[in-house]
Amino acid sequence: MPRGEAAGEILQAGGGNVARRRAPEAATRRATPKKAGRSEGKTKAHELASQARHISVSEFFAKNRHLLGFDSKRKALLTTVKEAVDNALDACEEADILPEVAIRLEALEGYEDRFRVTVSDNGPGILPDQIDLVFAKLLYGSKFHRLRQSRGQQGIGISAAGMYGQLTTGKPTVIRSRIGPKHDALEVAVRIDTVKNVPVRTREKTLEWNRPHGTEVCIELVGQYKKGKGSIDNYLSQTAIANPHVKLTWQGPNEIEPIVYEPATGKLPDPPKEIKPHPYGVELGLLMKMMKSSRSTRLGAFLQHDFSRVSAKVAKEICDAAGLSPTARVKSLEHKSSEDLHKAITTVKIMSPPTNCLSPIGEDLIRKGLQKEIGEAEFFVSCTRSPSVYRGNPFQIEVGMALGGTLAADEPVRLLRFANRVPLQYQAGGCAITKAVTSVDWKGYSLQQPRGALPVGPVIIMVHMASAWVPFTSESKEAVASYSEILKEIRLALQGCGRQMQKFLRRRKRVADEFKKRSYIDKYIPHIGQALRDILELSEPRTDKLVAELRDTLERSRKL
Amino acid sequence: MPRGEAAGEILQAGGGNVARRRAPEAATRRATPKKAGRSEGKTKAHELASQARHISVSEFFAKNRHLLGFDSKRKALLTTVKEAVDNALDACEEADILPEVAIRLEALEGYEDRFRVTVSDNGPGILPDQIDLVFAKLLYGSKFHRLRQSRGQQGIGISAAGMYGQLTTGKPTVIRSRIGPKHDALEVAVRIDTVKNVPVRTREKTLEWNRPHGTEVCIELVGQYKKGKGSIDNYLSQTAIANPHVKLTWQGPNEIEPIVYEPATGKLPDPPKEIKPHPYGVELGLLMKMMKSSRSTRLGAFLQHDFSRVSAKVAKEICDAAGLSPTARVKSLEHKSSEDLHKAITTVKIMSPPTNCLSPIGEDLIRKGLQKEIGEAEFFVSCTRSPSVYRGNPFQIEVGMALGGTLAADEPVRLLRFANRVPLQYQAGGCAITKAVTSVDWKGYSLQQPRGALPVGPVIIMVHMASAWVPFTSESKEAVASYSEILKEIRLALQGCGRQMQKFLRRRKRVADEFKKRSYIDKYIPHIGQALRDILELSEPRTDKLVAELRDTLERSRKL
């Protein structure tokens, strides 16, 4: 069937330039060709088709910026800091460098709501030619295509922050970077061309920089700075809890001195390893795609090399179960055979995926982190579960709790949510972590709990999900999606901590009861003494003695 | 600065093909060049850079499929139906055709969890060359770049459903379409190349079709079919409420006869008009982008032609306030002048945006729709607010309530959420609509309400947001983002309905009290009669008379 004229037009109109030229006038100019089209005997379908075009991913996110966490001025500021800090920490850790990250927020003079965010690190720096792509192109990065725990995973965040800055202030993102003492430090300003989703470098220069290597990113944006829930301050203090190896320096707009979060340990976490996909988590379509693009020629080799936990023996078992030969050519398998192979995988016992792609905080450091940052509590418990798997992705749940002390006893517990060591600040209601916490029956652990809500008590609960791929409910990475395997693991970890907490609460209750009883004794014994003296007609000293004896006996009996 | 070798590699590696070739082996093969790179004196930055690459939008969404509503088998089925129905309704309405949409779900034999979804409409059909782009390319469509109410807006949904089908079953999407009685009907099968985000047509043929025009899409996918909350059945019955002009035919997998939702009106809603952006909602960055791409040469003309509600007079006022001349050349304005212009806009009084881009359901049809689909209630109220604006986007809130009858009185109210006539089935907790409902003090309207929760009572609340751009919290379009203007309007509409509801509830309470009192009288009056007879020593007939008088007096006094 030959291409109609209208269809030809559309395919052209998809190009970025054309779309840009047409965009603002589209509404008015379209009317004329539309009617003309109709009158030439074209169908309604032609008319509708003439309006269709490609949408660039940056146009999409510019319009849908709330998906990326830029739906309010205050949140935009937090998201910008968060994306920059996430990137800085990831870069340092990948280069085996103990991270030192400095965050500075300046209120810009002459404006009510404009700020400059500057985040600098002692990381490995970024190659001059990479800077533009990293900071001004959405969907570009090193973390998306691998299976390994990291804070960033999408290749969107920091470029989106720069795009938001550009949209609200017209200013480019400014980056300083140096990749080593023998290399120049470079300063680059980049904008993002949202119609094409490509970076545009607007200026560059080399500069003197007093650090051997590192990166500094600087974004001007419209924002609002306020402390409290969901603030940069909260985010940073929670970052310190989940990253006890990191030094953070935070200079807010109204502070004279920066706040410094000193590390609680001088040891980097074990670096997580990259793994290959596990056969159990691979769907038919993905299996077919992997077969198509594999470097292996034979089916057996493909299974062994392209998956984790598939030995020659397991590969043969899978092939046998599918009725296929391990020497079959991967690329000439029919759809039917692929289906058989896919079904066969589920029937063969395969070891769980390797978990060295994960980097949990650990029970010890969780307690230390909580102790350091939550001074008002008096008792700390923690629980790190064994790794588990959802949709083929390894993950691991950790829970910590800070209890008692001067924490408010008659308010809902405070819940701190973390994913890959990043504190989550928004969308608590839509998060699997919140759902898991409210679904536990806390009355069994001596806490009150309104139906379907967080329990009430002097407790701070921290939940950390570490995974090679955290399933966030939106690109802004504020909440974890509710996969049943994840919910289950969180519940089990909470219950583990709950039991420890209950011991503490019981002991505390016993002590409290103790005190209460003691105060009763102290209160009433003199009266009893008085009564006894009258009844038995005792002398003052004799009465005192009797009262003392009585007190001792009561004390003793209580301790039995 | 010359490009380093490593950087050159990366720029190449961004291409789809290279990425595909490398993907599965990346983990193993990368190790070698990495170490080699280091030993040649390259920095850690070179090593990290060698891992960075482009991510295609379809790869991104394939991995993040829960963002699109494919996080469970059951939801995947609903999302697929929903996207297909949304598209069918939009297409019919744009072509001024009263929509007749048929949905068929078949369980595929030989599988536990495979289904075929077929959705067909009497719409205008799709041009042969457009079919592939519409059904197998993410971020392609006619609705993203315009300001006008429609169900679809992103150009993602139906292609994502096809991609999910392909990933889980390996099968392509099959489309039949005919654009008019003089044209052939065409059947096309398309796959999506996820690495490049482009469609691949796998087969095509012309066919006999007994309809003059229309489209049918057929997707095989792994799913789960179950009735109840979040089911296809619920989605369709709610679609019928919000679209009283639509005929829906629904053939479930276990039904012998299809369910038919007949339209409640034979009139199409007024077609919404496309509008231009309103100056108040335009941020500095967007303003600068619009100036760059405008077809107008002069500033005054730019303001008049590229925005809505800017007359020559308003354009001049803006220019005056900015200290700029209306005859200034748009494309040669400096950054400073753009800022001045942007600031000036906020100081000039400009009429609210036109609202003919919206298509609300209307108070009458809301009540009719509720009455038709919720037979168990006895009283119906509704409230359509005047249009309002968030971030420059016009929107309008409507609320309907069904009350009393046999609705459960001791359970939380049922909340039905709609956006642009589409019922929202998931993520109620994260939705501005839920937040607005729980934030109203329902005790003021005679309903019980646990703290921070939905009120309790025999009520179904329906909330509809109509907008030229609904800000969804994720691409799956399940919840509305909480912009303060939107929350406020929903609250006002709820309060409007609340007052009407309260009248009903009060009347009902009065009647109930009445009944209660009457039964007391009936119960005690004989006893009172007995007592009086004894005290006053009355005869039997005299007593009966007195009792009757007493009853009358009591009745009368109650009616006053």
Describe what you observe in this structure.
Two copies of one chain form a homodimer. Chain A is of the alpha+beta class and 560 residues long. Chain A has helices at 5-13, 16-22, 26-29, 31-39, 44-49, 57-63, 73-94, 128-136, 157-169, 232-242, 284-293, 299-306, 312-322, 335-347, 363-373, 432-439, 484-536, 540-559; strands at 53-54, 100-107, 114-121, 140-141, 173-178, 185-193, 198-207, 214-222, 247-251, 259-261, 379-384, 388-390, 393-403, 414-419, 422-424, 459-467. Helices cover 41% and strands 18% of the residues of chain A. In chain A, α8 packs across α9, α13 crosses α14 (335-347) and α16 runs parallel beside α17 (484-536). The termini of chain A are far apart. Residues 1-39 of chain A have low confidence and may be disordered. β4 of chain A pairs antiparallel with β1 (53-54) of chain B.
Task: List the SSEs and their pairings.
Two copies of one chain form a homodimer.
Chain A: H1 5-13, H2 16-22, H3 26-29, H4 31-39, H5 44-49, E1 53-54, H6 57-63, H7 73-94, E2 100-107, E3 114-121, H8 128-136, E4 140-141, H9 157-169, E5 173-178, E6 185-193, E7 198-207, E8 214-222, H10 232-242, E9 247-251, E10 259-261, H11 284-293, H12 299-306, H13 312-322, H14 335-347, H15 363-373, E11 379-384, E12 388-390, E13 393-403, E14 414-419, E15 422-424, H16 432-439, E16 459-467, H17 484-536, H18 540-559
Parallel strand pairs in A: 2-9, 14-16
Antiparallel strand pairs in A: 2-3, 3-8, 5-6, 5-8, 6-7, 9-10, 11-13, 12-13, 13-16, 14-15
Question: What brief labels describe this structure?
Answer:
homodimer, about 20% strand, about 550 residues, disordered N terminus, alpha+beta
